[in-house]
């Protein structure tokens, strides 16, 4: 059995990763500063013997006692609204935070997998995006704090590999959705579903001709799990290549929710990428991985999850009181 540190453990992807490692019988050390994560995503794991939680900001010094076999660095605000609100923390967690975790990985002789992003491609001029494409990023635009920090993260992770011989993996994650996304995180799927559930109009930014390709969370976690166990230190795209325009996506959500909401158009945020679709040839060849859940199935599960939330959760941020979960 391995002992695994997962940062950003209370977040959407972090909590699903914790579940996966626990399911395989591993020992999970979970860490989160709870700025954007929700402790509710982990509450079912607190009673387990092989789960520990530390309320810690990995941009500061990170201490973990005992051995570690793997580190998965998933701490970071990940929605455009969040990184506009907390730009400095966004920059720090993928730069200083990554540096701390690389140091920890080196000290523990652990393998580290870092969560990179399709945002390293910026507003891409190559379509679909393969790992060889270097991207089109505005360093000082509103998304620069996320994009450049993630690019730096890849660079320093690779430097630890080439200079120190550290065992690394880099996953470039494309738009992902599923249960445990925050309804108010500003991303398009929770935004649309939340609007439909509250009886509000759906806000399409720009004319809705921009495209995204949405991957269901279980597929993504499977891809990450395989990549961690592969011997490949270069970036690998994990995502679903099924591309759709945001306007068509809004119409799908209206059909799914059976509501008669109108679509209203709002200004397109600055530097919003016009198109995004992963080229997943590498993941297919290297990991024999490809997504299995189609959008209709994935959206149905996700909608059921959001429908099950209470009124309060539909309107408010979740309250992060983790003290009640701490083992005495
Ligand atoms: N978007 C939208 N309405 C919303 C929220 C987002 O039309 O209420 C658009 C956004 O402009 C972008 C796409 O949906 O083109 C995906 O946005 P998201 O924030 O989910 O993630 P991104 O892929 O841009 O990082």
């Amino acid at each position: 059995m391995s002992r695994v540190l997962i940062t950003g453990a209370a977040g959407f992807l972090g909590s699903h990763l914790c579940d996966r490692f626990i399911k395989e019988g591993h020992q999970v050390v979970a860490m989160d500063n709870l700025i954007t994560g929700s402790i509710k995503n982990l509450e079912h794991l607190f009673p387990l013997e092989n789960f520990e939680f530390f309320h810690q900001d990995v941009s500061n010094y990170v201490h973990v006692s005992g051995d570690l076999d793997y580190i998965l660095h998933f701490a970071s605000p990940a929605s455009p609204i969040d990184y506009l609100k907390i730009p400095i923390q966004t920059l720090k967690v993928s730069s200083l935070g990554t540096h701390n975790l690389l140091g920890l990985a080196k000290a523990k002789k652990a393998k580290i997998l870092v969560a990179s992003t399709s945002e390293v491609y910026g507003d891409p001029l190559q379509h679909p995006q393969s790992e060889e494409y270097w991207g089109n990023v505005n360093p000082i635009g509103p998304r620069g704090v996320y994009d450049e920090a993630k690019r730096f993260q890849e660079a320093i992770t690779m430097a630890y590999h080439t200079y120190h011989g550290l065992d690394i993996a880099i996953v470039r994650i494309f738009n992902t959705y599923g249960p445990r996304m925050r309804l108010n995180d500003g991303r398009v799927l929770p935004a649309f579903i939340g609007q439909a559930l509250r009886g509000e109009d759906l806000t399409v930014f720009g004319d809705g001709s921009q495209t995204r390709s949405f991957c269901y969370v279980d597929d993504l976690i499977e891809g990450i799990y395989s990549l961690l166990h592969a011997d490949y230190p270069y970036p690998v795209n994990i995502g679903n290549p099924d591309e759709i325009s945001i306007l068509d996506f809004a119409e799908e959500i209206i059909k799914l929710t059976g509501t008669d909401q109108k679509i209203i158009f709002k200004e397109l945020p600055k530097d919003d990428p016009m198109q995004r679709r992963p080229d997943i040839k590498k993941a297919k060849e290297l990991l024999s991985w490809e997504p299995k859940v189609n959008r209709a199935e994935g959206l149905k599960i996700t909608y059921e999850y959001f429908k099950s939330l209470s009124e309060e959760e539909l309107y408010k941020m979740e309250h992060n009181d983790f003290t009640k979960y701490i083992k005495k």
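The domain at 3-325 is CATH 3.40.50.720 (Rossmann fold). Residues 13 and 131 are 22 Å apart (CA to CA).
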